[in-house]
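Students often ask why we bother encoding 3D structure as a string. The short answer is that it lets us treat folding as translation between two languages. Here is a chain of 193 residues written in the first language.
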Amino acid sequence: MSHHPTSGPVPLAPSGRPPTPLPAGRDRASGPLLVASVLCTGLMAGLFFAYDVSVMPGLAELDDRAYATAMQRFNAMLDGSPLFGLLFVATLGLTVAAAIVAFRRKRRTVAVPLVVAAACYLAVLVITVAISLPLNSELAALGDPDTAQGVHAVIEKFTSVWVPLNVARTALCVVSLGALCSALIRHGRATTR
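And here it is in the second language, the structure alphabet:
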């Protein structure tokens, strides 16, 4: 009786050939980085989308002073949240890290959509820092909207710029999320060959 285990037939890949073994020491970072990028980008897309479909339309039904008060409070909560700050920046960092790993492993089919995802999210960061945050600061500078002067002009300027830019941020996050999902699918196919 032999003590060597018997091996059955080698399963074939969809191409009809035996599967190609993965390189020794294959990276263990790609999958978790991709999943984390998808989750973070999805959260950011969801946040912007929630503003588009509920927060901003709801605020538009309020008078200027109530609108200013509510928006000041929303902005203060987000600006003061370490969790939001971490998520906002980490989303880009995770995507860039995943792209670097993919390029180093010579997986262009995975790396290319990651570059698209990173570029879209970078645009979100630029819009936020260059335009949205200064508008938030102008709104905060009103102080108490019940006693402030020129509330209507500030709200009019704020809504005419901030609202459409938030729609753009939502769209960019959704495109980034789609590219990340494509990269994740391609990564899965590459690792199962």
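Translate back mentally: Helices lie at 30-60, 64-79, 82-104, 108-141, 151-192. Keep this in mind for the problem set.
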